[in-house]
Amino acid sequence: MMKFFRKYNKQLLAVFMALLMIVFIGGSALQQMMQPSQNHAVANSKYGQVMLMDQTHATATTSLLSQIGLSWQRLAGAEKPIEIVDWILLQREAQALGVTVTPEVVQSSPLTDTLSDRISQLARNLRIRKDEIYVAIAQLLTVEQAAGGAAGSVIPSDAELDITARNALEKVKIQAVMLPAHAFVDPNQQFSDAEMKAHLDKYREREKGAGLNFGYYQGIALKAQYIQINRDAIMAGDTIPNLEKKARQFYDDRRDKDPRFRRPADDKPSDPFRDGQFVGPPPLLPPYVDWEQAKDMAINAVKKQHADEAAAQLADWILKSTAEPWGDSERGKDGYRMPPQSVSNEDYYKSVIEHIPPEKKYPNAVTVGATSFFTEKKANNMTPIAVAMYKSEHLPMPLSFRQLAFRSKPAVPEVTSKEGNQGDYTALYQTSQYPLTHLATGDVFIFRIVDSKPAHAPDSVDEVRDELIADMRLQKGFDAAKAKADALFMAHVTGDSLKVAFEKDADLVAKKETDSGHELGYFDPVAFSRVPMGQAAHGRMPDGIKVPQGVGPIPNSVIDKIFAMKPNNVESLEVPERAVVMVAEFKEILLSPQEEFEKMKKELVTQLTYERRSAAMKDWLDPDKIRARTGFALITR
Hints:
By secondary structure, this protein is an alpha+beta fold. It contains 21 helices and 16 strands. It is 43% helix and 12% strand.
């Protein structure tokens, strides 16, 4: 072997040096060969293939936009957020339409002036040139401009303007007697099984609506289990060192602004002139009560504050403890994690609270409870957890128990990225990540869904007996209200005004004074239009309008009947959506002056054009529409 190396020493050395040179010069090339290609196609479209590199570039661009506070996912106020692939398709679509906003235009635009500080800060943080950010903004404005061009500008016709202006300006004056069905319900009325079965069969397959829109189809029902952290129990078992000192500090820090310490308006200083003690005006009292008056309130406030903090820490410990078993659980194809065996029983929560650390334990402060089965419509009846909410400065609106309960696998069998944050959706037996706080008591709830029943039509009367009886009584009450409306009509025919006819009916006057008669009565509302003035450009509301001064919500179909009535005519109008019969006496139609009518028509041209253009842009930027018109299709391998 040694003879071989000595014989071919020069040749071997040359080969070795050549290999070193290849590694030195071609190292990056070799590394790239080991990585997946950035140029393979992931989707097809009529504007060409979408490559992995396209997605990388688009992600970088949209990240810059997000970091300077520009929303690229909801352009022009679109209702559905777009994704990276939609951004790529919109860019190509704008290019095909010949729409381009250059970075130079961006630099001279008012938008850049507004964002100048953010752009400079971001460029420094990322160590990039501002030009790269201007390019990203230019792409955003290009897409918006293309959407605006595609939406066009539809000028409303003169006939449309006439109708829209009339709906807002023309008013009707009526007087009315409202006869709600619940005021005529007999709470002791009973029905035979045959009657109830006939009623059930009629509405078995419908979902329940408002008023007389009966329905007994049962939506999916869930059962929740919860851990309740009782704030009062924590306060009772809590020992706070230097409590009075902390309460005094609490008072000193907040006495000027905290309404709890505000001096009552009738709390005035004694008259210094009474005994001839002073000359001049009496001294002014501070707007807050003194320490002795505030002491108990301040101490209680500190106790509550301390209990809230303890409850939050305890909730955090429980959430972490219940999350641990799920850490190694795999997600199924439905997007949910598979429940670990250790949590798949209803005694699991009891074992969790048994392991609460001693320093976090308070006597009788933590208990386990469960709801009965509830549908989405009945979730708000599940006390005490029903009124508990999750609030956060990062959320525009609080999350309710009902919302979170129905973000679970039994209610949403498959969850994808389209559903938003997948972490909001829980598998069976999985604890929701959101602790809920009771609005009145301050108690904290942690919950999970432990069982469900599928949606179904009821099999028997017994399954929905209480609902059937309540609805059938309401129907009978509605029939009684219609009969009373007929009596009022006949009184009007004989010469009485509607007001006099109501006041002569002793039965109606007596019912008005009962608890069930709070919506019943004679009303004389101000004149009203088909559409509120500020709503004119948006069109008529689908559910009608709310007539002021006691009449309440009225559907468009009834409003149209009222406008079609003749002077001094009386009609009985049924409002099944509210289970109400309305007896209306027509007085007059109030027309607006011609100058006001013409002025509003001119204003409506701009408003209607803007509304239609905005709606068209939102439609253009809908992700489903984007993908459909660009021929988008994922490439499956």
